[in-house]
Design a protein that fits this description.
Helices cover 77% and strands 0% of the residues. With 129 residues, it is mostly helical. The longest helix has 28 residues, at 70-97.
Amino acid sequence: MEDWIEGNIIEEGYKPYNIKHRCFYFSKEVVLFVSSCKYENVFNSLFDQLVRSSTSIGANVVEGASGSSKKDWIKFLIIALKSANETKYWLCLIRDTMQVSKEEINKLIIEAEEISKIIASIIVKSKST
């Protein structure tokens, strides 16, 4: 069974090599970040969208990996890439409109950017083979 399913703790600063694991830990960090924020009702939809888009990344990577064809797998990766880009948008909007930890949210933005680049690279390489 996958270690992220079993709930094993990963050392802080460690980034898993497997993209499924990396997406899972990113989603977890976003959920923990949102749960730690105190915000007015006007910001509810921003945080809701952030949680939805960030958790969609890994969900689509995992679902695509169990797909029936290469074309199906690439389709799910493209959706995951779109979700990663949407996540960066929500993180930047929250960073620029609220009193939140800039350091913490910038770490999340950087990780979302790195995940986007990895997924984009997988897509490009998969289409060329």
